[in-house]
Amino acid sequence: MVRWSVGVIRRHYTCQAAVILLVLCCYSISLSHLQFLIEIWRTSLLLPALYGATLAASTLFCGALVGDQIDKSPRLVAVRVSLFVQNTAVLVAVGILWFLLKHHEVRDGWFWTLFVLLLAFSVVSHLASLASTLAVEKDWVRVICGSNEVLLAKTNARLRRIDLSCKILAPMLVGFLMTYLGALAGAIFIGAWNLATWPLEYVLLSRVHSAFPALQATKTQQTRGPERTTLQLVFKQFIVLVEGWRLYSAQSTFRPGLALGFLYCTVLSFGSIMTGYTYYRGMSEVVLGSTRGVGAIFGIGATMASSRLIERFGLVPSGMIGVWAQLVCLLLSLLGVLYGDPSQGNCSQLADHAKRSSCEHNRNVELTLLLLGVVSSRMGLWTFDLVVSQLLQQRSPANQVGIISGVQASVHNTMNLLGFVIGIILHRPEQFHIQASSRKRPPKRIGSTARKVT
To answer: Residue 144's CB: how many other CB atoms inside 10 A?
Structure first.
């Protein structure tokens, strides 16, 4: 149990500063890749869908392996290695993005070769980011808080608040740079930011490690059955993956974790597919970035409200309140999707002023309802997410937190991957409404005068 002396408070603020840099860097890099891919090919959702599917598949097949390595490695070594791999891969990926932005007019063999290389380095960066997240937010926090459940809930809420605050700053900053300085300037800034914050992340996390003696203790090795044969050692990675899923499915948190995973199989979120669709419909980077920021503010509100909900109603009832609140809010987004007609594009091709005005009005109503529902649903989503995360921390064996959390990330990405596969098949922006509402064609509205321009 942590005693709240002045020294401990100072160490906690050092820990939060380290997480701020870590999360802001990770999120700004991920967001920038997505926005730049949309900039490269604005008339298609194929590149964002391929990018998202690749990252989701990498976590699905490697999440448990990453968590297993976190469990086996010394805490500080695991974080240092993950930071080195992540930042190196990001710098290379930003260089490839810069070249693609300058030569994206012709989509020949070189274009797709560079795109595949970009996906490869993005996967490496993504898995390294997952490793650092599992190490710091799942393992370190649990060790620091000890057996104090109230302190653990408050610390989880603080860290999630940091995460969401970074999600306010990162999209607004990247959107501002891309709108007013251009995509190339945004890519250069992202690379420079990554390089500048790397030493700070390293130093701050090292100070946190040295400030808490419990983090320096040797981890208890988990028992995983008898000694493996030579054949088993050859297929060690596959065995770890299967073993991780076996451990995960045996936990009492299996069903709530699976329920949280299902929430990732949707396009009604600030993911790559919906982001690409809003750009296609004419929304600027600044407006979308600001909207993401408002959504993050709602998420911050959830971190504040969730602690009180848990104290008053308990973990499980609080999770039920959160998931039902999200469902109700997303009904607004569904109404927006049913109202809109994506075949009209961004309305700029309509020559007739009356038709263009009608098209812009319908588009604005559609996007307002769509984004309003997604933004407001963040309150319920993050409440449910915090509840499930605390259940995993409290009810998982101490020496298996890493691998179980890695499998949970794989569950999320399984559902996320399913959504991206559908997005690859239905990659034309005009087909977004099919993914969101399962309708075969946009509904006909009385009084709509706009038509698709060929």
So the answer is: 21
In the block, tokens 């490690």 appear at: 209
Q: How far apart, in whole angstroms, are the C-alpha atoms of residue 449 and residue 100?
A: 39
Q: Residue 290 and residue 129: Cα distance in Å, rounded?
A: 25
Does the pTM of the predicted model rise above 0.70? Answer: no
DSSP 359: H
- Who's near 411: CB < 8 A, 6+ residues apart? 248, 257, 258, 260, 261
> Which of 259, 241, 267, 370 is CA-nearest to residue 52?
267
Let me know: does 222 contact 22? Beta carbons within 8 Å: no
What integer pLDDT is reported at residue 120 of this predicted model? 92
3-state secondary structure of 237: helix
Buried b (16+ CB within 10 A) or exposed e, 163-174: bbbbbbbbbbbb
Check: CB of residue 138 under 8 Å from CB of residue 401: yes
Q: Using one digit for the tens of pLDDT, what is the confidence trace for 46-79? A: 888 888 888 878 877 777 778 777 878 888 888 8
d(CA 55, CA 62) in angstroms, rounded, equals 10
